[in-house]
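Open question from group meeting: does this chain pack into something compact, or does most of it stay loose? Before anyone orders reagents, we agreed to write out a predicted structure and look at it together. Recording both the input and the output here so the notebook holds the full record.
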Amino acid sequence: MASLFRFLLLVLLLAPLAAAASLDRNAFTFTKYDLEVRTNPEEAAIAVRGNVTLRNDTEHPQTVAVLQVSSTFDWRMIEVGGAPVQYLQQPFASDIDHTGKLTEAIVTLPQPVPPKGTVVLDIGYSGTIPKDATRLTQIGVPAAQALSSQWDRIGADFSGVRGIGHVAWYPIATEVGRLSDNTLFDVIAGWQRRQSASVLKTRVCWITDEDRSYTVVANGTFEGIGGGSSAVEGARTGCTSYSFSQLSETVPTFAIAPFEMLSRPSISLYFLTGHDSAASDTAMAAEKVQPWLEDWFGKATTKIQVVELPDAGDAPFESGAILFTPLSSKDKKLTEIQMAQQLAMASVNSPRRWIRDGLSQFAQALVRERQDGRRSALAFLESRMAPLAAAEFQNTENTKPSGDARQALVSTTDEVYFRFKAMYVWWMLRDLIGDVALQAVLKDYKADQDKDPSYVQRLVAAHSKRDLEWFFDDWVYRDRGLPDFKIASAPSRETLNNSHVVAVTVENTGAVGAEVSVTVHSATGEKSVPMLVRARQKEITRISVPGKPTSVTVNDGSVPEADLSNNSFDVK
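Structure tokens returned:
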């Protein structure tokens, strides 16, 4: 009998663990949030109360729901219909939070939720948000470098908190995502797809015993400023409400600090005390590049916002037309480039990220060219090449010949693709059809008419009178990797007046074609011509130069390429 009792006790103790192990964390979609976020910056404390609406998106009734928040939070209450429900709180390892862990509540619902049925949970949790880079340091990133990108925290002088992929300050439910095995970004992308139509409403409040007030800024839609959240005698307090939609693209983010504000017609800046000069310089940088960009993208439809991050090394974070960044007067060209990105985001309205985000990167290259010429712009492109090459290398080689539809620009959710690869695509299109035609394409682009992936291709054909089906097929509709050019041969012969003709054969061993520049260098100068080299093909061009040729190079950097080490050839 004693043995039977121990066995039954063991079964009872292990039952919740067994249930946790078999959980379907993707069963519910979080369709609606209504949360009040209460912060005490001096005590680095945060408490959240409110409710979430969950919809069962499986084909079976569900009796268990999962709620995950940052590991620095503890669950205080979970209720359904005003009555407490049973839940098991447990740690859950995942790099979706900056701490590398989550606090997970496994909730037993009072009754099964049918397929497509919903349940509203009243919730409360509290804790702290310290600056934490554990998920990066545990994979070997140096601490100082890791902390520069993990600047989220609640603190006395500055609080800044980003959502999904940074800090789980609102409840989520995801499977494990790890940086070490490259699963994190797929998990984030999956969550964002599921929540694409969800709405998050939040009232962000602060309270302080100090003789100062705070300003709340967020990248959502401003809905108003209300009274404080607490009636504590002698304390200052305030609240600001925001709503967030399009959660497939927006990372709900808020900042709280004793900000000062500078407002100009095209930009609003929230800056920290004593940084008036840097704020003014930033506004002037935006106003300087704005006319340049209007030639390409038209006038901005929204005012851009810049929120200052307190530490000079903090990594900028952009979401739509709002930018979180340190302010500095030291590098004005860099500030102009930053503002170019934000102005392009405020000018280009598109449902497609390769268009909106890609053009914002392209705008930065245009400004860099305006500052110091084409070579500087190409160096800017190259600064984005390493992550793109790494991403292409990681994708399965077997998918490349026929094209990887998952990573095609028209469908990818990978930032490296819809930002950096798209930037190159816009730059190559510019080289193919010229500034005038591409500017006409961008000015004719209408987001509400962009109903199918070939819309931009048709605009390009209309304004350039060129059939670029091959280009869109290789670079936009499919991901076939990157081209790989090399000079196969470059014999030369002397002609009249000490001139030489070089017959250059370029081979492309990659699975994607491109129009690429070929340059012959001689003692008296150089001459470049464009050459279209399709995938796995060889092409020949003849280039005449004054003087004896010394070398030939292919690709001036305008075409992304995995291997640039074999792009030069010495002419004998």
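Observations to bring back to the group:
Residues 1-21 have pLDDT under 50 and may be disordered.
Residues 34 and 201 are 5 Å apart (CA to CA).
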